[in-house]
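tool=predict chain=A
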Amino acid sequence: MKKNKNIKNIMLAFALVAGLTSCKKWLDVNVDKDNPNNQSVLVENRLPWIQHFYMYSAGVANFRTAAQAGVYYSNSANTNSVTTTWKPAAGLTTTPYQTFFVSVSSNLTDMYDMAKSKGAYHYMAAANVFHALGFMQMLDLYGEMPYTDATYGNPSPKYDKGRTIYNGCMAKLNEAISLLNKTQEVGASALASGDMMHKGNVDKWIKLCWGLKARYMLKLSKKSDLYNADSILYCLARGPQSNADNAILPGLNNSMVVDYLIGDPVVTNGNFNYAAYGNNQRISQFYYNLLTNMRGSGIVDPRMTKIVPAMMTNVKLDGNGRVQSYDWTRSIGVDSYGPSTRLLKSTATSIALPSFAKANTNITYTIANAADRATFIADLAAKGKTYTVSGNNVTVTYKAGSMYINSTNYILAGDTTYVNLRSNAIATSGIAAQPESNVNWYANVDAFTAGVVGSTGSFQTRPVSDFEVLTYHEMCFIEAEVQMRKGATGPAHLAYKRGVEAHINMMQAKLTEWQGVYGTTNPDMKPMSQSDITNYLASAAVAQNAGDLTMRDIMLQKYVAMGCSLENWNDMRRFNYSAGNIGGFGVVYPGYDRGPLFTGTAELTGGAKTDPKYWMRRWRLPATLELQYNSANALAVNPNVNQLFIWSLPVWWDCATDQEYESYLK
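tool=predict ok
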């Protein structure tokens, strides 16, 4: 928390940048535009930057927890530590914490107080909403956190336990609902002037508050004394009722501006900034299987081609070195939980990035093992590759226009089948000629010039993707789960079906919006086939009647729909992953387990799936920001904060009782 000393100055600078876009805001003779200060920053200039940096903090949390939950594989050391080895790295935990406290929470009290002094009740409410969003995220990740002492500039704030943080966030939402129902004072800034999310639509803000209350109340599903199904349903009835009510922050690709705190594009989608900014991420086999074989049906989900990236293959170039013909090849998933055959042949992080062959390129592989050599040659023949064999050496000619792995290690040669998730933004692609209307990833300038696409990207993680704060489809799946817990399978089934349809419809609307701009270079940014949608919804991949519906059906469809979201990890913890010991619901996430490359025995100390400490339950606090500069306060509430096994200790809402929770704080 040492960096909190500079918090107000940092965000003041950002707020002033926004303010300068509208000179009329500085016409007040009582404001000295040449000497701005914290009190002169307009609430309508603070809010968009709070929204932006919340999106950034949440985007990092979404990506890294989605990797923990099995959505993604990564070959970067930090993230691979939770996708594959389950030996979580210390460097994984800093960014969501840092960006929230430095850029969001530090401004919440100031914006609230300024809005209060002006009678701008809706901005007070907005401060409360982002307080709840941010601090609940901190609770989800770290368990114990500076809270009651956190937003007042104290560089060494005391810590609070989970119940205090949870109750505080719920109280903020209750007050926000009350404030949003008030008429602002005359002269108060209209919410629309600073709101990127709902453009000032107060009714949608109110629905967001109720929806967040439902999401947060669901976290208490292990607590028989606090979980209240009817209260959740009450909140859902007042939350989002259709996709028109979705709370989203826009992602854009129309600016070269990057922020000076982090160096990432200012206008892009928060998920993109981590999941698809670099080349390290791939779709996991676990997620891929749900998109191609839900309920063991063998049915391919129409959303699959919009979520799983593709690349150009079998490329032929014309005389000018431009693409003349090609095929699209869809990625397969990287297996970390099952046999993990490919990773075991090398290392956990060994999935390699392809290069572009501007001209015919020969690579010679020395393969001493006869069986491996025969398999390698058979694969080359099946793919129509040009090759020669001399003893143990196999020389492959990668034709001009090909994507290939630039390594003589034959084990890596097939890694082009794992298409990375990267998309390009004009601010960071390094390809000056690539226009705003093209967000494909190209291996380099030569590949772009030739027109050879290295990845089409993924629906949630492009720079122009919407950032989903709260959605109607999530509300439907929450209702389905709550009704299922009540034993009301009929209403549960209706809500489940609405959830699947709502997510598909949300995607289809965005794809339709994209197609005229981005679809000309990217087929994955065009709408799905309506017949494919109709057939899927009527297929065995979707439970067709209430009698067949299981909790697994509900949660796996929710998992697909949420994708790059912290809520998938939260849900997995509530159901104890694949332990199968919650209620009578059986194994809800089959196939999710420690894989053969597991090395996290010091972090995850449980010896059986039914032991809570078998699984990743929280993040360790940031080593420098808290364990070095604020360790006394951290240790005062949890003496285990410095221990590696902290990763396996459940947070407050993940415990059935306070007694269980307190036992982890000894």
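Residues 1-30 have pLDDT under 50 and may be disordered. The radius of gyration is 25 Å.
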